[in-house]
Amino acid sequence: MLRHPLKRYLFIPFVLSVALAIGTMVAVHRWVAADLRGPNPLFHASAPIDTMVVGLLTVIGGVVLFLIGQPIFNAVFVDRLCEHVERNVVGSAPVAPFWSSTGRALVHGLLKLLIYCIALVLGMLLFSFTGGLGVLIGLALGGLSLAYDGFDYPLARRSVSFGGKWAFLASHPGLTVGYGIGATVFYLIPFAVFVAPPFTAVGATLAYIEMEKSAPGAATPAKAQT
């Protein structure tokens, strides 16, 4: 990978991911510490327990904010990388108009964030009532989210609507499940989260290209209005 000409497109996402991870942890730590140790704390506890609670909430809150913000901060650079990969493999790549694609990406990102929040709350509720089953459901929802994030890049370049992207995943269950499992395993590797978005996005792009080659005209879902 280090010898590949496209390695320069990994540097900025990596730096942004590290900076985002540090920033979210620091911000959450300051907010939690100020709230729990302020004049009206949520609860009163001994110093060791208070420190443990602050640390635990910092990690949980930082991770959640990081996972939400990482795709947004890296989107432009990862999309550029995937476009170059598609050009190198196929010889050309569709390019959506800048302003319309930017506006569409913003709307789709907000809709996706809403769905992710609902999925997170649902996963927490299921974990509270079902324990291990809730963990499995949470992993499944996480894998589905990663599948959407990955295939969002080749589909967005083809101006596919938000509903069309989910329709694509639903119409290719084998591809969606297989990619979701692989991406989830990759994200679970220690520290891989800092480089996972560009790698998984390139993987989705290559998978989409292979599917287009094997079934021309069947890979791109209908362009519905958002």
Describe this structure in words.
- The chain has one domain (5-214).
- The longest helix has 44 residues, at 47-90.
- Helix 6 (173-188) packs antiparallel against helix 7 (196-214).
- Mean pLDDT is 78; it is low at 219-226.
- It is globular and about 60 Å long.
- The chain is built from seven helices and no strands.
- The protein has helices at residues 8-36, 47-90, 98-130, 132-156, 162-171, 173-188, 196-214.
- It is 78% helix and 0% strand.
- With 226 residues, the protein is mainly alpha-helical.
Tell me the series of helices and strands, N- to C-terminal: HHHHHHH
- Helical/strand content category: mainly alpha
Determine the fraction of residues in helical runs and give it as a percent range.
Answer: over 70%
Unreliable residue runs: 219-226
For the record, give the distance between the C-alpha atoms at the N and C termini, rounded to a whole number: 37 Å
Measured on Cα atoms, how large is the radius of gyration? 20 Å
